[in-house]
Amino acid sequence: MELVGENLWLIKDDSLFLAWGLIVSAAHAGKSVFITWNKYFLLNLHFKKSKGNSRTKMAAVQVPLPMLGEHYIRSVHTLKYNTILLMSDGDVYCFGSIKGLNLIKCLSGVRCLAVLNDGFSVIKVEDQRLLLQMYLDLPSFENVKSTLQYTFDITFEDKNIFQCEWQHDEYTLTALRVTEEEKQFVQNLFGLKEEQPLYVHIFSIAGHVFVLTFNITGLSESSYPGYHIELLCVYASHVRYIRLLPIENLCLVVLSSGSVDVWYVSSLLAIKQSQTYHTGSEWMDYDATSDNGDIYYTDGDQLVRLRFMYNIQLDECFVHTLIKPVVGIQACTWVDHRKELACLSDNNIFYCIGFNLPIQKSSGRTLNMLASDLNRPMGLRQNAIVSRFEKRHQNLFQRELQREYEMQKLISTKSYITMQRKILSKVHWKVMMLQRSTISRNILFRARKYWI
């Protein structure tokens, strides 16, 4: 574990501040800005290196939240020009200055938000309709009525295909602008044979996961004939986050139960396959914003990194776990330029923890060897050899397991016989003692009768 700078940075607060979240608002070589919050206010934490020496100083600026009764911050998002806050009542705020928040009046009833390269997308409720809208990000939202680009009605007329109450359910939204390199992955993952989408939106409502794709060609403000919406799957638990990683051939679905559902396109079948990784614990906070798709989470007792790797030769996804036994972490966020995880503990101490340990040398050599053979024509043959090798080892394992079972069975039978012998010997001894006592009693009785 590595601490930032030479000292421990402590958030001094008389109201027993307990962090509800932590994000990176701005990160550069000499200056970093973090945002953390609770129910009543948020803190802008500025870390800056001094010119005279190499020490880093922290300054905290407290920003009070709008008093909205029981409403709270649902999420905080960093855009290109702004940092915006989504409240639980559907209102959206942006920073007018470092010490104040401004309400974005053109946005209301928002349920979730996703960041794009040049803006953001939202799902909102308006006039008993459920809408997915795309907005541009501008340097200032104060004097702009609206930056709305496109609106998609996802209620499917009067039929509620989500079968839920829109006001009280959990929402997530992930947006992706599809490039030429990512087009084939998107088409195979979502079964789009003829369509060539420019934007992909994956959203979930109460465990129902949908995909909306469209091409910007031919779209206008009055008609949107080019979009396609489809139900992908349904989960028993809520979906907390969805991450698309086309380069790694992965789509990660983080569930509220602490499990991660992994989707990938099969190299043999060219269709979507899935497997689930169970962590066994519920997460207090997590971060899945790193470039390579690593997921970092804390459950209060430890910090864990999950690294997902798809193996094209075995046509399977592998999960590498790295655990740091750090207790009491309440919130965490990934700092990309430092390649470290910034953390805030329950006693308000700020840490920066490195996860730069290699996975394993043998695994790295195997992955590099397989990656170098991707374009060889012997790939299918090697895949078949590996499959036979796995089956052979599986048969050997089953035989060893059966042999161990027979040994345990013999041991248990022998133990049972030994135990029965001990019980019989005890019973025999008690019978002998009882017979001896009876004979002794009869002799004494006869002797007594004789003497009388």
Please provide a written account of the structure.
The protein has a domain of about 290 residues: Methylamine Dehydrogenase, Chain H, CATH 2.130.10.10. It is built from 3 helices and 28 strands. The strands form 7 sheets. Strands 1-28-27-26 form a 4-stranded antiparallel β-sheet, with no helix packed on it. A 4-stranded antiparallel β-sheet has the order 2-3-4-5, with no helix packed on it. Strand 4 and strand 5 form a beta hairpin. The longest helix is centred in the C-terminal third of the chain and has 73 residues. The relative contact order is 0.08.
Write a concise synopsis of the structure shown.
This protein has helices at 180-190, 361-372, 379-451; strands spanning 9-10, 21-27, 31-37, 41-49, 56-64, 73-78, 83-87, 92-97, 100-103, 110-115, 119-126, 129-136, 148-153, 171-177, 199-205, 208-214, 227-234, 239-245, 250-255, 259-265, 272-278, 285-287, 295-298, 303-311, 316-324, 329-335, 340-345, 349-354.
